[in-house]
Every structure is written in structure tokens, then in C-alpha cells.
Amino acid sequence: MNMTCVYCDGFGQKQNVLAIWKQCPVCDGSGTVTIDPDAIRRAITTRTGLAKSKPAAARSVFGAEYVWRMIRFHAGVDVTMPTTCWYTIGCGGILQQRHQSLLNVLDRLVDDLAEEFFGTSTAAAEVWVR
Ligand SMILES: [Zn+2]
Fold first, then answer.
1. Do residues 5 and 91 touch, judged by C-beta distance below 8 A?
2. Any idea what DSSP says for residue 31?
3. What is the pTM of this model?
4. Residues having C-beta closer than 5 Å to ion ligand 1
């Protein structure tokens, strides 16, 4: 599934802190990102399930670092709130309404895989409500 890059709004370029236009680091200048659930799954799993440390392969698959980190959070393996993983999908800083359609797709994948690997996707929520 192709979606407009939310970091550069499909422009392919982004101004850096010095107001110099640079190729967008999230979409590599294409303006779109591809969400491939099978590729994400392959990048973050080993023969025994979800990779225990962040797999190097995840860096080259859009969304994989985000999904890996959020599964661990939702399953209660990591109970600290993920913050930096939003930057890997271009949603760093303050979450905005325009990020929602992208997050909906990725978060559905997170829920499905958390359920599959850990039998739960609400362990973190349960920790937080205690
Ligand atoms: Zn971009």
C-alpha cells in the first residue's frame, strides 16, 4: 500500500533547521511511502518469533522499526512509552490529525502481530491503568 509521506507531505523535500531544502529522509525524496505488511513481518521476526533486539533489517523497511517497538510496548515487554519510533515514520514531535491514516494502518498491524506473538495487545494498557 502506497501512502503520502507525512513528513514532507508528498513534496519529497524538507527544510532543515537552517532552512535549506534537503531530500526527505523518510521517503528518500519520492513523496510516498510503501507499507508492505509481509516485508515488515519478515524484517522483525526470527524463527522463534518477534526479534528480541531491534533487527538491522528493520531500518530498510518502512514502518518496521515502529511496528517492532510498538508490539513490544503493547505486549508489555518494554513498558516505557516509545517516543523516538515515531520519527522513523515521519510522525516525530507532536502527533497531528494528518498522521492518523498512516498510524491506523501501522497500528492495526501492531495489534495483529502482538496478538499473534504474545496473545495480547493490551498488556501495556493494563500496566498503565493500575
Ligand atoms: Zn517524505
1. no
2. S
3. 0.85
4. 5, 7-8, 24, 26-27
Q: Per the structure block, which three cell numbers stand in for 30?
A: 519520492
What are the domain boundaries of the chain?
A: 1-34, 37-129
Burial 21-47 (b: 16+ CB within 10 A, else e): eeebebbeeebebebebebbbebbbee
Grid cell listed for 124: 501495556
Compute the Cα dihedral for 115, 127, 95, 25 and give only its sign.
negative
Identity of residue 10: G
> How far, in Å, is the centroid of ligand 1 from the Cα of 61?
14
Instruction: Report the C-alpha gap between 76 and 15 in whole angstroms.
Output: 37
The CA 128 to ligand 1 mean position distance, Å, reads: 33
Digit-coded pLDDT (tens) for 8-25:
999 999 988 899 999 999
